[in-house]
Amino acid sequence: MIIVLKQGINPQQKQETRNFLEQHGYKVREIIGEQDTILGAVGRVQMDLREVELLPGVDRVIPISKPYKLASRELKREDTIVKIGPVRIGSGRIAVITGPCAVESREQMMEAAEHAHNAGAVMLRGGAFKPRTSPYSFQGLGEEGLKILKEAGETYGMPVVTEIVGTDYVDMFNEYVDVVQIGARNMQNFELLKRVGALGKPVIVKRGLAATIEEWLMAAEYLMAHGTDDVILCERGIRTFETYTRNTLDLSAIPVVKKLSHLPILVDPSHGTGIRGKVAPMALAAVAAGADGLMVEMHPHPDKALSDGPQSLFPEQFERLMRDIEAIAPVLEKELERTPTKKESIPSAGARTGELDSEKAGKVAFQGVRGAYSETAVERFFGPDYTAEPCDFFADVFKAVLQGDVAYGAVPIENSLAGTVHEVLDLLLQYPDIRVVGEQKIRIIHSLISVKGASIGGLKKVFSHPQGLAQCSRFFEDHQAIERIPFFDTAGAVAHVAHMQDPTLGAIAGREAAKVYDMEILKEGIENNPRNYTRFFVIAREETAGTRKPNRAALVFSTQDTPGALFSVLKILADYGLNMKKLESRPIQGKPWNYMFFVAVDLPEDPSVLKSAIEKMSESAADVRVLGHYCVQGE
How far is the C-alpha of 351 from the C-alpha of 55, rounded, in Å? Predict the structure, then answer.
């Protein structure tokens, strides 16, 4: 049953409710949601729900209809996020796990880990104990394989996951492994599920060869009922009559599971198809279907693999797949999960500057109000460890960063339809101590939002930023009775309508704004052009620059007022093989008809190339300045 507690319940009443349930034989889990705090009570006993409803501090009691109680969406409406070291699975990002099917040697595992790390995978897999159909096949290296896997993961800063095959190995796995995998053949090995669940470690449970979705969720329920809350489901294909692939990869299970359960779900396209050439397209299809991550087999030398070589990707194929995932992620309003490495630094301003206290070092300023697209950019780039701080104006974001009130700022620099945000570009020129340290691209999906119970036919006025109104002009052509009212901010328009509580008023903004202000989305995706993206710059003080390994640089320069002056500077970039991604001119303040030029270029592998090019540019251009070296996310 679900016990919804009253807001403001005191700790004593909450504990008395818990004690009452436990005394009647229930196992109790507390879940703190965005709006309610609930107690989930599961057990074999039956009792009159009215007895619980009469307890002090209890608002209402809701029975759970599904046989899987703890895994059910009825118990927990918000998606579960499983944290494994620096990795988060189920956080709106796409986590990719890779490695060979089996740990064969230390050299093989180290080489695989290096390839996985360099391509952007966040977790390392490898089988130490291999349940094989034939007793004569390679069965794995056992405990020695676990030691090798752990060493490889620690060397490259990647949590490790491997499959357990029996209850005798539980204590051994607890010592070496970050995530325990329950394989398809053991999905209904209930004694193993009980022992693994009692460890309290994160667990990946793969769907059985012929298991229904409900049976799969019941396996997760066994794990949760015996001690672990961190369960990750993994679809790896089911056995059907089809023979052209190893299994039939059931991608339809993803949206079904998302509706039934709050648990995150991965997809294993390697076992799902058994054919190397099918892995990448099915991996991309899984991401498009809503998977929270992938488990992909990659081997340094698949043709020499002792297990599942035909379905293992070559390192270069895996690297291409990661680039493809990163390219489609913004379309799905997701971000590829990444972890820091020894060659990269994580966004930890306090650790680098020694000037910001821990509270300020965890803050990122953005322009707008809660629910703004800028706040979404902050969440996509930094994840949940940082707090987004709203500011009224773009200049306030720069000032907050410069004064040390926050560690970073996020400001829009360009929209794919409306073009450059010139005010931000001018501010970058005005604040020489500010550096660009990152870039995040997000897809702009406009929703029509109003109070609960409102309808499109009842709307008289709709508020939004002028760009938002313009980008949804076709909607207004179809609803000419609705008056368009310009507002300073999209999310601010939602806040205004929420305050008015008038069902004849609506707003256009992103779905996050509707969530923040507890409003209803009347229609989603009303923008004219679905290819609507905005790039956001992440900015920081010069001494805190460098949140992740950079792959792009931003420069500004001015030229003499002579024929061919700009051409001569740009030719230098071409001569040094620097790919130019953007060129923009802006008037120099105080110098009418004189211009500064903003240029973004891809960083070459050898950083000295850019340094030499800038030195050469200084001979032909004036005021050459580097605005920052930064990492582009979402591209």
Answer: 48
Is 50 in the same domain as 132? Answer: no
Contact status, residue 346 vs residue 549, Cβ threshold 8 Å = no
Q: Which among 381, 378, 342, 335 has a CA at the least distance from the CA of 95?
A: 335
Buried-state track 356-386, b at ≥16 Cβ within 10 A, e below 16: beeebbbbbbbbbbbbbbbbbbbbbbbbeeb
Catalytic positions are 534, 536
Q: Are residues 17 and 103 in the same domain?
A: no
Q: Which of 158-162, 251-255, 330-334 has the lowest mean pLDDT?
A: 330-334
Q: What is the C-alpha to C-alpha distance for residues 567 and 570, in angstroms, rounded to an integer?
A: 5
Instruction: Tell me the per-residue pLDDT of 387-415, one tens digit each, with 9 for 90 and over.
Output: 999 999 999 999 999 999 999 999 999 99
Read off the pTM: 0.76
Give the tokens for residue 384: 């949940």
Q: Distances in Å between the alpha carbon of 611 and those of 533, 545, 547?
A: 31, 17, 20
Q: How many domains does the chain have?
A: 4
Say whether both 407 and 311 belong to one domain: no
Cβ neighbours of 287 (radius 10 Å)? 24
Burial class (CB in 10 A: 0-12, 13-18, 19+), 59: middle
Of 44, 62, 80, the residue that ends a domain is 62
- Domain extent at residue 395: 358-443+533-633
Q: What is the CATH number of the domain that holds 463?
A: 3.40.190.10
